[in-house]
Amino acid sequence: MPSTYTTVESEYSAARKYAAFFDFSDFGKLRIAGKDALDLLNRISTNDLNGLTPGMGKLTFLATEKGRVVDLCAVYVQQKDLLLLTSPNNSANVKKWIEKFIISDDVKVEDITDLRPMLLVAGTSAAEFLKEVTHSSHKTLLDLSKMPRHNFIRTFLSEDEVFLARTNMVMNDGFIIILNKNDGGTVWNLLLDYSKTYGAAPAGAETFEILRIENGTPLYPYELNEDVNPWEVNIIDAINDRKGCYVGQEVIARLQTYDKVKRKLFGLSSLSRMPRGSKVYSNSPADTNETEIGLVTSSGRSPGLNKEIALAYISMKQVTLGSKYIVKVGGQNVEAELSTLPFLI
């Protein structure tokens, strides 16, 4: 995915007014096969995957024995196997982690990232745009916006069969399209052809990053890594606190039960840049010691808000909505305001 195809402003405007589409082929894709595949994944991840049937999907965290994040993944149940979607450049790490727990289970994990191109169509009218370019008799396509989030169907773009799943990875609504290896160029060109009529546009990495931050979507290795526990990431629907044991469950459950979650992911907005890695400090007049309370993990300028925005892990002891904080940038103090996520939907 290039940085931009045109400009961030025009790509962002297309997404907000109609739809934008992205090349997401570097997101990891694992095929998990075998009669014990779903049972194993349920035993090693934070969400309850029991009861999922073909066409259904869920978000779930994979965590270490110490309750630290390996990745936040989407699990899709297909007819003969599972498809696990990982963060970009993390599929090999996730595959190795899963395979540690295969002992006598009938489970095989295959990294198919390079075999399956992937696109994302997102925007206020993403469903309408895809309805125009998708040819299928499937009843769901009469109104894609009613498809349950993370569920999927098999349909066609041009003559090519595709996997189509609903997601809120970027903005409130979007659709993942996973293709066969040789179909990427054909489908991309089809979207380009239709975009000229309907006001959609291809968009690059910079636009994705802004929309991701606005949406509060965490990504490996910035917000998702082994310095973080799942409760801190604040994606609550990826954790089922009533299910039985899973890898890291004892630590993760104890953090919630005893109110030991010390920080969570929040948004910061400012008139000045807040680069990734910048430290956040209390702005209380009573705090003469400049207490460090957080860390910026991702940042960029939002054309929609006309502000610099950032994702940051902030100490729960210091959280008051609307509070002002100090972000240290190159020795300078930048004032920033706390925000819940998402910034925009």
Account of the 3D structure:
- By secondary structure, the chain is α+β, with helices and mostly antiparallel strands.
- The chain folds into three domains: 8-25 and 117-215, Gyrase A, domain 2 (2-Layer Sandwich); 27-115, Alpha-Beta Plaits; 262-339, Elongation Factor Tu (Ef-tu), domain 3 (Beta Barrel).
- Helices cover 21% and strands 32% of the residues.
- The chain contains eight helices and 17 strands.
- The protein has helices spanning 8-17, 37-44, 91-99, 126-133, 184-198, 205-215, 230-233, 249-257; strands spanning 20-23, 27-33, 57-63, 69-77, 81-88, 108-111, 118-122, 152-157, 160-167, 174-178, 201-202, 263-270, 279-282, 292-302, 307-315, 324-329, 332-339.
- Strands 8-9-10-7-1-11 form a six-stranded mixed β-sheet.
- It is globular, with a radius of gyration of 21 Å.
- The two termini are 23 Å apart.
- The model has no long low-confidence stretch (mean pLDDT 92).
